[in-house]
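Entry for the shared binder. Reason: the reviewer on the internal report wants the predicted structure included alongside the sequence.
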Amino acid sequence: MPASKSSITEVPYDERGNLLFYVDERFGYSYLDGEYSVPYTMRPNDPFRATLTVDSMRTGRSAKYLIWRDEHGHHYPMFISDLTAMLPLVTVRLGEVSGTWIVRKKGQNYGIALDAGRTGSPTR
């Protein structure tokens, strides 16, 4: 089921505006693809409306996840379970989907989900 709310109030973004999938809070850095780290800041977890395009699929330390890209080039990870919950509710055309999104946290990882409780969320 798509998210109708999220219990987390702040989420990590890097300096370029990308939502980060994993942060190591002990060092103040996020590890991306296990190769390098970038500084991040915590921002309010406000729902946002965007049209997103599928960018890639990645493998984290504990799971595979999808990366969506917005019109400004910002990246947003999504858990595969949230992707499968979203697909019956929206139309994806040429790799694009529009909706209202909220960030969720599973374990130590962050990802977006369709915020089905918001006005303006897409339907079939």
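Summary line for the report: Residues 80-86 form the longest helix (7 residues).
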